[in-house]
Design brief:
The structure is a single chain. The protein has 271 residues and is α/β, with parallel strands linked by helices. Helix content is 46%, strand content 18%. Strands 1, 2, 3, 4, 5, 6, 7, 8, 9 and 10 form a ten-stranded mixed sheet that branches. Helix 1 links the parallel strand 2 and strand 3. Helix 9 runs antiparallel to helix 10. Bound molecules: octanoyl-coenzyme A. The site of octanoyl-coenzyme A has 27 residues, from helix 2, helix 3, strand 6 and helix 4.
Length: 271
Amino acid sequence: MAMTDVVVEKKDHVAVVKIEHMKAMNALSTDMYSQLEEAFGQVAAMEDVYCVVLTGSSVINKKGKEVQSFVAGADISEMSKLTVEEGKQFGNNSNRVCWMIENFKRPVIAAINGFCLGGGVELAMSCDIRICSENATFGQPEVGLGITPGCGGTQRLARFVGLGKAKEILYTARANYSAQDALDMGLVNYVYPIESLMDEAMKLANEIAAQAPIAVSLVKEAVNVGYQTDLNSALKFEGNCFAQCFATEDQKYAMEHFLARSKDPKEFKNK
Ligand code: CO8
């Protein structure tokens, strides 16, 4: 499979995965989900990438106007023809990609640059942190298309925005929640002008990438595991993560760096 619509770029310790379908508002077809999976597979093989930014591109609409889109959902043309069995397969494919991102060993920041609808919200919710541009719009329009969300919309959304708000979003199919709405409901952490979105995403990613990578990965795992289990089991899991850090060179280096009152910037080895 040639990767033409999902582009991977590496800048120091950060990888940028850009959805650049250039048509259908970056909608996710089976092929697009496969390309995303392949892109994250490529990034996983980059040992010195410590943080990832996932974003979309500008696309051309029917009126020939260039607009920004993260992902305007799963591909409605493809979904329109699916049988029940094929629907299950489509759901499995998209869930596999979202699961891969949610459990990716490095943090993934969604830099939401425009339309973020249906499967787009679901994809963004599988990332660790979401930031967006002022022009971004959000929604889960599935029930207006006769379907339910199939990739975490009925599950992750309520965890972010609370049960009542999630049900409003899911039942009304409204596709015009603004960036400010997303900020107010806790779906995104920050809103920026579109011109500075990627700079801000890279700043955040570099800030994360400058920390001890193994510790950051273990924090991600501990938060994710703990969020889905009871507090006592979660605390045990955290304790194991904490203990594992003492087997790393980076822990020894960072604590010596502190105790020596070193002014040198820290350089972790991911070891
Ligand atoms: N699927 C397929 N094509 C799309 C999609 C989409 N999701 N979104 C836009 N397009 C196409 C348009 O049909 C149009 O195609 P063409 O140029 O061939 O006519 C092209 O993209 C440009 O779009 P518009 O001209 O409509 O652009 P506008 O700027 O006027 O409007 C919108 C942009 C508001 C994004 C509008 O295109 C729209 O409403 N799109 C559909 C949004 C939507 O309903 N998304 C949810 C889809 S359902 C879903 O995601 C279910 C997820 C299930 C999880 C995964 C499986 C389990």
